[in-house]
Amino acid sequence: MTVSGGEDSxxxxxxxEHLVAVNKPAGLLVHRSRIDRxxxxxxxxxxRDQIGVRVHPVHRLDKGTSGVLLLALHExxxxxxxxxxxxxxxxxxxxxxxxxxxxxxxVVEHPLRDRRDSFAPREIQVRPAVTEVHRIACAEFxxxxxxxxxxxxxxxxxxxxxxxxxxxxxxMKHLRHPIIGDANYGDGAHNRFFRNELGVGRLLLAATxxxxxHPFTGNEIEVESRLEDSFREVLMRPEWxxxxxxxxxxxxxxxxPENSSEPRRP
Length: 266
Description:
By secondary structure, this protein is an alpha+beta fold. The protein has five helices and twelve strands.
């Protein structure tokens, strides 16, 4: 089910009496935050006004990240979904454009230190974090952005198996393949190249699907979102090899990717 409205409404991808999933635009905060005090529009308020029901967030998407966001419509649904997220029973897929030629397939097991939340201060801990990364396509631009005569990039699909804050962004930085447009963990020179030469100033990270067992019916639910135009235009450029199709499930990574012997360059 897809429902969309005007400027002050959200695209609803799925809804029943317990859950709702929406397509969050890039640049929209999920809830009020001290990090950005100037913002006056928040997804929770917009969705509440749109459907006339209070909604309960159960996971996060950063302000710059677009895509599928799952919310609960009552407290019991929120408790069950939160438990499923903690148990790793919910599968999320993200798509990103990153610097360099990323590996064809890699499971990143790199612990991450908690980032302090001003709303819930707690003791800082280092927690296990695991992300599965698949390369979808590569591109090489005739531009000397860094120390090389050309600039290389990859489209990757990432499946976090744990739910640490900024996990995908931090793991891609750890791999030396930071996400384009990431002001906190990215590469400033490549961010400027995309902004100044390609006209892309956003974070090129999107949550494209979420798959889970319904907490009340037991049915398997999969919700997918279409990439925003600002993201899709990047992927329609002719430099990508293989060429990326405009529609379909081309962003779904293979189940058993072949190992690559290609020499590495960050």
